[in-house]
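Q: Structure tokens for this one, please.
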Amino acid sequence: MAPQGEIPVSANVLGTIGTVFWCIQLIPQIWYNWKQKKTDGLPGLMMFTWAVSAVPFGVAWRVWTASLLAAGIGALFGGIQLLLVLTLRGPYSRGVEWPMTLVGVISAVLLAGGLIPPYFEIAKRNGRVVGINFIFLSIDWLGAFFSLMALVAQRTFDVLGGVQYIVVLLLEAGIFVSHLLFLLRTRSLRRRAKDTNTPFDHLPEARKFVFPRPADVTDDAGVAPGEELKDVEKSAVGSDVVEGIGGRGRGSSVVGVGRWPSRQ
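A: Here is the predicted structure, written as tokens:
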């Protein structure tokens, strides 16, 4: 798409709002993970893919802007981004648009692709969303929405950018809808958990909404819940038997737990 000679004020305002939302979107998610002390349900691949997608986003920036970004996010991503700026702006200014379009497609695919891994996590829990902060998701959705509205307000619509924002909006809306349906399906279970003062995840009927499944969870020693108690009971029974045998007389050949045979 050729650069526009004049951008309407409304497009600038909407685009700025969308950029502000996308600048602060991760703050609630970072706080949520720090508070929970875990990242279960939040795919690392999602965050990494989004970070990678930010590199080709900067090809339309000024050289000094990309250089500052390079100092902020590290030599690797910043170096690649600066290289793209220096190599693509020249052909683009001469009317050769396909390299810039290709980079834009790569960025769009990475950005949208980052929202695919959460659906695998959701599938593991039968539609339940775990680990994703909904304030973060709402801010990100609003960032895509206002960015799309900025394109609509322009005199010519950027199809590639518009498709990218629409895909993000739909994928994130799907995450909202999935969790809403989970809440509707489990309202009676959640009510029972509240009435009995029982954690929802501990209800037998809620097992399919938990991952890993309770039977698959083990402690640090690799023992599943309940197995430790069984081992203690077996040990106690065995000790009683040994003690009973060892107590038949002095010099018995059977050794009690933690004892040496008594000497005549």
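A few notes: Residues 159-185 form the longest helix (27 residues). The radius of gyration is 30 Å.
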